[in-house]
Specification:
By secondary structure, the chain is α/β, with parallel strands linked by helices. It is 37% helix and 23% strand. Strands 1, 2, 3, 4, 5, 6, 7 and 8 form an 8-stranded mixed beta sheet that branches. Helix 5 runs antiparallel to helix 10 (225-248).
Amino acid sequence: MREFSEDYLRRTRRGMWDDSREALEPLDLASRERILDVGCGTGELSRVLAAESPADCEVVGCDADPALLELAGEHVPVVAGDALRLPFADDAFDLVVCQALLINLPDPAAAVSEFARVSSDLVAAVEPNNAAVDVDSSVDREDALERRARRAYLDGVDTDVALGADARDAFEDAGLELLATRRYDHVRTVEPPYDEGALLEARRKATGAGLADDRETMLEGALTEAEYDDLRSAWREMGRDVVDQMETGEYEREETVPFFVTVGRVDGAESEP
C-alpha cells in the first residue's frame, strides 16, 4: 500500500464535502451508534462523519501511520491498525467506511471482507475514478500535460486507482448486499487570493518536484526515460507559466475528481422496517 504525507492528504481532500453531503445519505448516519473510518489519514472524513451523526455516536479512526493518527486524534478517538487485519472484534461497529483507500490495495475485496467482519450492518467505500479527472486552467497546456502525466501514472501503478464505481465488484465478491452507489464530484478551485498551499503547488510544478515524486511509478509502465525527461521539461515550463500568472493574479484552475460512494449491507444484517 502506498504511503501518503500529511501535506498530500490535506491538499487533495481540502474542502471535500463542504458543498454537499447528499452522496453520504445512504450511510444513514443519523441512526448510527458506532462508526469506524478505516485509513482515516488526518481525519478529514472522520470529522464529517462525526458532524453528521448523533452526538452520542462514537466515530473511531484507524490508520497504519502513527504520524497521521496523531493529527486525526485531535478530533476523534484513533487506533493503529492494518485494513486487512483490523484490531476489533466481530460486529464492533454498525458502519465501517473508507475514503480513497481501496484504490491503494492490491485486493480490495479482501479489505471489504474484513470491514464486513467488524460491522454489524453497513460497509461503505468512497473511491475516486482518477482516470476521469477533469482540469480547466487558465494556463492553456496544463490540462493536456496533466492528462499525459496521468495516463503514464495509471499505466505504471500496480493497483486500480481508477476504481470509482467499480468498487461494487469488491462488495459483491465479499458477499455484501449492494444498497447504493452515488457519485460525488470533488471540485478543487484555485483562484486569487492564493493560499499558501496553492503557491507551494505552483512552485512544485515549476521545479518539476511533483512529477519527480511519481517518476518511478511512471517508468514502470510504457513511458521511457527519454519520454519522462521530455514530459518533465514541458511540465516545468508549464509550472513557470502558472507562477507567472499567479504573480499577476490571472491564474485560475478548477479540478474535478469524481468519487463514488458504494454502500453494502452485511449478510444477515436486518434492515430497518
